[in-house]
Structures are given as C-alpha cells and as structure tokens.
Q: What sequence folds into this?
C-alpha cells in the first residue's frame, strides 16, 4: 500500500503536465508545435535555477525569500562590472556567482549560527539585496551584451543560437548537477536527514550547522546562475527589481511535490513543477488571457499542492501511529 501511495505521488505532477499540454494544444492558438515548445522551454530558464536551488533549502525545512532579489542583485552587480567598470565579460560572470555564493553564505550563517528563523533571515536578505544592487549601480539601468555587440556570444551561449534554445542544455546540466548532489552524495543524504529530524541527525553525528550553511550556499550559486540567464534573456537589468520572483521558484518546488515540512522532495519533481508553470504561462496566453491570469491560476495550483502535501503527511502520520500500536 505504501509503495502504491509513493508511486501515485511521483506520477501526479508529470500527469498534470501532460494534461495541461494536451488541453492547451486543443484549445490554444499557436500552442502546439516546435515554436510553442521552444517558448515553453525558454520560460523555464531563470525560474528553473531558482527552483533547483531552493529545493535543497525546503527539503531541510527552511525557506528562502531572497531568491528573486538576489537573482537581480547579482545580475545587476555583474552587469555593472561589465558595462560601467570595464571588466571582461567572463570575469563579470564569475563575479555574479561570487555574489550569489556570498549572500547564500550570509543566509546560512544567520539560520545555522545565529538561529534566526529562515523566513525572517531571508526576508532581511531580500531587502538588503534590493538596496545593495541599487547602491552599486547608483540606481542606473545596466545592460548585458546583445546581438550585434562585441560580446554577442553571451546571448548565443546562454539563451538562444539561431532557432536553437541553447539555455535548455545549461538547464539540463544544472538539473543533472542538482540530482547528483541530492541523490548520490553524502551531502544529499544529510539534507534529507536534517529535514526529516534535525535533532536525530545531530545526535547521529551530522554537523547540522555546517550542512545548513552549505545548503544556502548551493542555493545562492543556483540563484546566481538564474541571474546570468535572466541577463541573457532580457539583456536589461533594472535596479530595485526582482522582489516577487521568488514566488515563482518556490511555487515550482511545491507543485513538484517537495514537502514544505521538509524531509522529502526531488529535483525531478521540481523540474516538472517548472515545466507546469511555463506551460501554464504559454497556454493561458494562447487562449487569450493575459499574464496576470497566470499568477491567479498558479496561486490555486500552489494551494492545491500544499493541501495535498498536508493530506499526505497526515496519512503518513496515521500510518506510523498504527504501526506503533
């Protein structure tokens, strides 16, 4: 019985993705086909990286509200280094990763060492990064290289080359890295252990604080990658923006089946959640509904996913009590 329940949980999100795609293929205009599929994939880029990163955090029972602001902050600082300070583009991209990693370290330190609730700690970081990007850029709009510029390779490598969405290859690479870390390493095993029972993990010898910090650093690096792909997609980075984008990343994780209570989740499920959100965005546009309808319907989907998670956890708790009795 337990195996059947687990299998149902694994196929629910992929089944929802297939149903959505078929529905919009029938009802939508210009949805079905290679162009529609390419637009869906392109919508996954920066949201996917944020979602992969915060999956690790949520599995430990934490949360990161600084995803969107950190993504734009790291992109803005890197872009400022390139366009205002005259840094080579490759060095500016490294700076973006450094910014993401340092703020991830900052989040992890506050949560693990200062014992701040993750909600409060990352909410503070959200505001800090919003201000930091504006301070560094002097509240000026920054621009990444576009087609026709000296460094036009940037957009071709990270976004689209001709008609081929090159960003898909990077996203699949990030998925592979995230899957490997979570499923094939000691780090991944300890992430699940901390989320399942932090005190038990501590008593068994796991250096919980160290691994919590590492989880937020990993999240910060993934978010920095999201900043790179955001810059490749839009080329323009505005100061003070990004607040609210974290909702998309967290929603994709929840829709993909990762428990907000911690202890369970998967990178594959998160990828499916990202694809569901991208399909919903493209599909609603294909039936003539504007972008705000995506936010409206995504809210219901997230609520449904959380309710399902609660039902699942309650069922597991009841089953455990019966076994004890």
A:
């Amino acid at each position: 019985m337990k195996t059947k329940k687990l299998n149902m949980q694994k196929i629910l999100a992929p089944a929802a993705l297939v149903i959505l795609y078929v529905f919009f293929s029938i009802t939508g205009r210009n949805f079905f086909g290679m162009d529609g599929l390419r637009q869906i994939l392109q919508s996954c880029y920066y949201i996917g990286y944020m979602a992969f990163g915060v999956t690790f955090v949520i599995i430990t029972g934490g949360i990161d509200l600084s995803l969107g602001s950190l993504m734009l902050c790291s992109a803005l600082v890197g872009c400022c280094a390139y366009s205002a300070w005259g840094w080579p583009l490759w060095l500016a991209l490294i700076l973006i990763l450094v910014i993401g990693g340092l703020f991830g370290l900052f989040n992890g330190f506050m949560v693990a060492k200062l014992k701040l609730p993750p909600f409060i700690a990352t909410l503070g970081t959200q505001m800090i990064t919003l201000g930091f990007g504006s301070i560094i850029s002097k509240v000026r709009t920054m621009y990444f290289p576009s087609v026709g510029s000296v460094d036009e390779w940037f957009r071709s490598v990270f976004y689209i080359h001709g008609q081929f969405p090159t960003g898909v290859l990077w996203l699949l690479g990030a998925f592979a890295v995230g899957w490997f870390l979570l499923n094939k390493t000691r780090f991944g095993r300890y992430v699940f252990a901390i989320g399942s029972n932090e005190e038990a993990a501590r008593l068994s010898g796991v250096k919980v604080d160290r691994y919590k910090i590492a989880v937020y650093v990993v999240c910060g690096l993934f978010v920095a990658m999201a900043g790179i792909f955001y810059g490749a997609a839009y080329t323009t980075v505005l100061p003070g923006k990004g607040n609210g984008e974290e909702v998309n990343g967290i929603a994709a994780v929840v829709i993909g089946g990762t428990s907000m209570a911690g202890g369970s989740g998967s990178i594959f499920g998160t990828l499916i959640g990202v694809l569901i959100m991208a399909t919903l965005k493209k599909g609603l546009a294909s039936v003539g509904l504007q972008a705000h309808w995506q936010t409206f319907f995504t809210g219901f989907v997230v609520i449904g996913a959380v309710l399902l998670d609660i039902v699942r956890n309650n069922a597991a708790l009841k089953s455990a009590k019966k076994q004890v009795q």
Q: What stands out?
A: Confidence is low (pLDDT under 50) at residues 1-6. The first helix runs from residue 2 to 27. Strands lie at 142-143, 236-237. The longest strand covers residues 142-143.
